[in-house]
Amino acid sequence: MREVAHHLQNEAVKLVKANNDLADLFARSVFNRYYYSTYHIVRDLLGQLEPQWRRVAHKNLPQLMTGQVVTVLKAGKTKASRVDDSDLVRNIARAIASAHELSSILTISYAARVTADYEVEQKVAFDASSRFALDTTSINDAHQWPHKAEFHAKDVLSAWHQLQT
Amino acid sequence: MAPAPDITGEVVAEFLSSEGLKSLTSVAHEPGDDGGNYFAFLTVTRNRNNRQQPSNDKLGLIKVKAAMRGIKITFILSIDGDTDLEMSIRATLTANFEPYVRSAFSSVQKRKVFVWLDQKKAIPKPMLANIVRTTAEVIASNKLTLAMLSTLQDANIPSKLAILNAVRQLAPVTAEGLVTALSGRGFTLPSEHWLNNQLDKIRKTNELVRSKSGMYALTTKALKSLGTSKKRESPDISRLLALARSRN
After folding, report:
1. DSSP letters of B143-172?
2. Which residues in A lie closer than 8 A to residue B207 (C-beta atoms)?
3. Closest CA to A149 of A36, A74, A42
4. Is B45 on the interface with A (CB under 8 A)?
5. pLDDT tens per residue across span A25-48
6. Cβ within 8 Å, pair A85-B227
7. Model pTM above 0.95
8. Does ipTM come in above 0.95?
9. Are A104 and B86 spatial neighbours (Cβ–Cβ below 8 Å)?
10. Integer Cα distance of A151 and B158 in angstroms
11. How many CB pairs under 8 A join A and B?
């Protein structure tokens, strides 16, 4: 899906001069695809943590990350510190920060996706250097979402794994 | 409360600007059964006292006022300069530590910056110290402070807690048996020698005992600090199941 997004991104830029309306539609789809690519990464992570979390609705994912996921990690951190496992305490602290980060990436990317799909009057702004932005979200940021999400997902998963008995 | 039928994005934007939000860039509506949700995109700045403008208290109050009118609002804040900071950290680190750093990510929370490194290979300690110093400098030049810099470990090596949990479940167990059990749980073990070293370390803290025949078991101290729970995942139940399985 990331490749699709990237392809659309190139097409949108090519179209700007010839047909601005069409370029706008392509560019909107790029934000949509980058969001879904990010969403799938997080959903896969959650499915590995707890199979039933795979079915959680889009808009509830950020709260699930900062809520239930962080609660389990924090309980694990207490356990690890009780047996003086300082490496694990540090890793869990990092995983908690990553869970918060995933939540915020999801919130931001979901909001951008909603703008892209429903707010058609809000046009994509193209600049001279073949970049574009939808409202405050630049395509550079959107491009980073899935990459970041993957990274943070690994962090959460590896800490989670240490806590399974 | 059900929203009035005449609420639109413009109405919401007008309401927000009447509440004094000047830096609102746009409003996006997410349809839903309960009238949906409005995302309000906002650029926040810092005043002379380093306080966020508009403050989160103020935004919270506006949310409540909006809710009274049946409008659900989620604020999406973009901090001036946040993206630039991440880009400069990434550029600096990949330029200076090219053999080690593939990419870097950052996040600003309350003027503190969290940085994550995507590393190409293990980073030796003196090099890591170097990287931390460089990162702190980039951040300081933006008048922020570095809260945490962390690297991702690729190898999924069992922690002390994971080892203790496995011993608890399988005791009495040999080092070899632990290697099998931990690998079965998806952990990567550098070698049996590595595990023996870990077991020795834990033995020195009086959390493990080793019998003459090379069997390991937890001490009362370890059992007490591990604790138990009454849930389905209770370690006592896992132990019972493991015992039952070993009798077959």
Report:
1. T-EEEEEEE---S-PPPHHHHHHHHHHH-S
2. 83
3. A42
4. no
5. 888 999 999 999 999 999 999 999
6. no
7. no
8. no
9. no
10. 20
11. 115
